[in-house]
Amino acid sequence: MIGQLRGTLLEKRPPVLLLDVNGVGYEVEAPMTVFYGLPDTGEPLTLYTHFVVREDAQLLYGFADRYERELFRALIKVNGVGPKMALAILSGIEADHLAQCIHDQDTTSLVKVPGIGKKTAERLVIEMRDRIDKIDGGPTYMPGKVSLAQPDAARSDALAALEARGYRTKDAAAARGKVAEEGATSEQLIRQALKSLAR
After folding, report:
1. pLDDT tens column, 13-40
2. Which of 101, 87, 30 is nearest to 12 (CA)?
3. Residue 84 has what DSSP assignment?
4. Which CATH number fits domain 4-63: 1.10.10.60, 2.60.40.1240, 2.40.50.140, 3.90.78.10?
C-alpha cells in the first residue's frame, strides 16, 4: 500500500496531477478541493494517498490530509459509491462539511452536491453515520455550518465561456485553475486562461 507521497509537483490537469518522487513520476487523481490549494509547479508537495489495484489498472488517489483520505475510504465502502463518485463528492463539498451533513443526517444539503441524488444521500447518512465519529481528525460538529466547495460564480462563468469556445472541459478547467486569483472577475479569468491555452 502506498500511503503517502512527497515530491515535486510537475503537472496539474484536473483531476490528475503528476508528482515527481526521486525521479519517478506518479499520476495521482485528486478531488478539486486539493487542486484549489496546490502550490505552483516545481514546488514541493506532500499527499496522503489511497492505492487501488484492479485487473486493468493501478490507481493512486491523493488527498491534502489524512482525514480527507479516511473519509474517501469510508465513502467507497458505501453501497453504490466507487472511487470516481467519491472523488466527485469530495470535489463538491469540503470533507469537514460532508462529515457535518452525515452527522446531522442533513440529506437536504447533501443533494445539492453534484453527483449526489436523493437515494445516494440517504445511503450516505445510513451507512456512514456510525463510522463518521470514528475517523480521527474530524470536525467539531456545529449545527447549521455547511458550505459547498463549488467554484464561485466567476470561476463557473469562466469555465462555461471557455467550453463555449470549443475547449474540452478538462483543458478549460486546467487553464482556469492555473490563473485563478482571489477576487478575479470572470472576464479576467477568461482572458488569462485563453493566454495560457494559446501557449
Report:
1. 989 999 999 999 999 999 988 988 889 9
2. 30
3. H
4. 2.40.50.140
Check whether domain 153-198 has CATH 3.20.20.20, yes or no: no
Spatial CA neighbour of 113 closest among 86, 84, 143, 93: 93
Greatest CA separation found in the chain? 50
* Fold of domain 66-132: DNA polymerase; domain 1 (1.10.150)
Same fold, 66-132 and 153-198: no
Strands 4-13 and 24-29: unpaired
Read off the DSSP letter of residue 77.
T
**pTM, 2 dp:** 0.69
Distances (CA, A) of 110 to 42, 61, 87, 140, 169: 36, 22, 15, 19, 24
Dist. CA 7–CA 162, nearest whole Å: 32
Query: Which tens digit of pLDDT belongs to each residue from 80-119?
Result: 999 999 999 998 888 888 988 998 999 998 998 887 899 9
Please, what is the Cα angle at 31 between 65 and 60, to 5 degrees?
Answer: 75
